[in-house]
Amino acid sequence: MQEPDVIRSLSALAHEARLRVFRALVVAGPQGLTPGMLAEQLRIAPNALSFHLKELAHAGLVLSERQGRHVLYRPALDVMNGLLAYLTENCCQGAACAPVTLCPDTIDQPKAICR
Questions:
Q1: DSSP H helices in the chain
Q2: What are the structural domains, with CATH classification, of the chain?
Q3: pTM over 0.85
Q4: Range in 1-10, 74-83, 95-104, 105-114 with the lowest mean pLDDT
């Protein structure tokens, strides 16, 4: 994934409604969801949802397919995985990352990272 694609994807996800829509589509997986199902599930007005789906599609994060009278939206999992790979490409200086666990809350450092 190239940097301009990463920026376009992150920009599309940098909105509360679009992030919620994308996450709902990821949960649905390849089965996808119709705009009506998304609007009902997320309580987003249909006209606003249409705008957000268009933005996610422009960023390449969702795919649409007409099935009869309905349009089915699915997450573009290959693009999502490419974005995640780009963001973590040089994680831990190329070495395998140690698992991270959260320490119990303390007064000094709530939810400090323990290794």
A1: 3-13, 16-28, 35-42, 46-58, 77-88
A2: 3-114 (1.10.10.10)
A3: no
A4: 105-114
